[in-house]
Amino acid sequence: MTDTIRLNRMQFYGYHGALPEEQRIGQRFDVDLALICDLYQAGITDQLDQTVNYADVYTQVKEIVEGPAWALIETVAEKIAEKILSQFDAVQGCRVKVIKPNPPIAGHYESVSVEIERQRTIAYLGLGSNIDDREGFLERALDALQADPKIHVERCSSIYETDPYGPVDQNDFLNMIVQIQTLLPPMALLRTLHDIEADLDRTREVHWGPRTIDLDLLTFDQMITRTEKLSLPHPEIARRAFVLKPFAEIAPHLVVPGINRSVMDMWQNLSGEEGVRLWRKNNGEGKFGLFAN
Fold this sequence. Notes:
The protein has helices spanning 20-25, 40-45, 54-65, 73-87, 134-147, 186-199, 241-250, 263-268, and strands at residues 4-14, 27-36, 93-101, 111-119, 121-129, 151-156, 159-162, 173-182, 214-220, 225-226, 231-232, 255-256, 261-262, 276-280. It is of the alpha+beta class.
């Protein structure tokens, strides 16, 4: 069951468009908005603070549509979704439809529109480093994740020192698992992870080779996908002790989609648990529970 608040046909005047006259003269824009949230407490208490204030939502949308001009209404829709999800914690997801009535293009159109759906998603990441200041690279990667306005680091495992995986002779790794909440869709999140790796001098000359930082997207909610660029869940989860040990620490009962087994079950039944040693316990103190302030 999904509870929904709908604000339909909100009308504004803005200056969005790819044509110079659209940004000079302006035109009308309509916006439909559906907010996915739990309305049970509001229904039984009749208290405004248990729901989402529609007037506040309208004000946020108005500021975007009547604010700085964008060439694409796709961008306007993304800005609205990002603002709503970042400003209203009770909203778990939203559908945004931006409508441009009577568009100034050849042909007969009543309107053109774009509609997007965005939501808060729980994802799990694997972090690893085995070059130079291994601890420092883990901390810098976590800082970069937390600095992204569309990512929030919710939980971190302890840090484990692990034997290198694969045939390449190299130093031991420091590994950990991180739970994040993100507003990004999976491919956008993957690109963000690759950007962080690049900023921290990650290179890819040798498969399974040494690296300053490795950021693996392990799971993204209950999504299952297999493409050339992205496989979810990560296909190696069930075979890697350096993933399962810290994973079981923070999400033991998570059932991995497609595999249909809990993280703890996979860890307890993994053959060969050696090579994973506790290096620093997350004690809840300091930055991310791991690093001194």
